Amino acid sequence: MQSYSVAAIRHAERLALKEGRALMPLAGAAAARYAAERIPPGTRVLALAGPGNNGGDAMEAAAGLHARGFETCVLLPADPAKLPPDAARAHAGWLASGGIVRAALAGDEAPGLVIDGLFGIGLNRPLEPHWQALVDAVNRWRVPVLALDVPSGIDADTGAALGRPVRARWTLSFIAPANGVALPGPGRDAAGELHVDTLGVAMPGSAAL
């Protein structure tokens, strides 16, 4: 499988956005389809939304699953007022649909599926303690996890573990897979089954690394 640097994927993303493609709704719809094909009806889903656009992808995915009849909740530990514009629109859309947002894990039982949208391909420093505690709690559940782009806690360029990463059953990469989850190493180990949805975006041939 051809993989790419974060810079190359970001370049393709910028070109697509410049052409007017709404990538976040496409990514969320792709993630919802992917999850719905792999979980039984009635599965409870918890979407973990981080402070950036990966969190917006997760909220769009939650909306897609909610529309399909799945009991879905969003966990958003970050301040919604500080979300980037596209993620803020996803958050507003989720609330408008009647979706539930929590700021912290409740004491109830584990969900049937977790969507990991905490951190995407941009994470380049160790997980802060409160994020690490959340990742550890999810890993203790030992339930299926669908990671969006890369499992949180992985450097998408090098595949290095930036703490104790999310242990995913599946990772769905958007546009193209990053080197950190495609090449041997901790990132590949954490990713589980690796799948790609290009969202209709072509990688420039000169961008491959």
Summarize the structure in words.
This protein is α/β, with parallel strands linked by helices. It has a single domain (6-200), classed as Rossmann fold (3-Layer(aba) Sandwich), CATH 3.40.50.10260. It has 7 helices and 7 strands. The protein has helices spanning 6-18, 23-36, 53-67, 85-96, 129-141, 179-182, 186-191; strands at residues 44-49, 71-75, 100-102, 113-117, 145-148, 170-174, 193-197. It has a 7-stranded parallel β-sheet, covered by helices on one side. Helix 2 crosses helix 3 and helix 3 runs parallel beside helix 4 (85-96). It starts with 5 loop residues before the first helix and ends in a 12-residue tail after the last strand. 45% of the residues are buried.
List the helices and strands and how they pair.
Elements: H1 6-18, H2 23-36, E1 44-49, H3 53-67, E2 71-75, H4 85-96, E3 100-102, E4 113-117, H5 129-141, E5 145-148, E6 170-174, H6 179-182, H7 186-191, E7 193-197
Parallel strand pairs: 1-2, 1-4, 2-3, 4-5, 5-6, 6-7
For the record, the CATH class is Alpha Beta
How many separate structural domains? Answer: 1
Helix content: 25-40%
Mean pLDDT: 95
Secondary structure category: alpha/beta
Percent strand equals: 15-25%
Main sheet attributes: strand count, strand direction, barrel closure:
7 strands, parallel
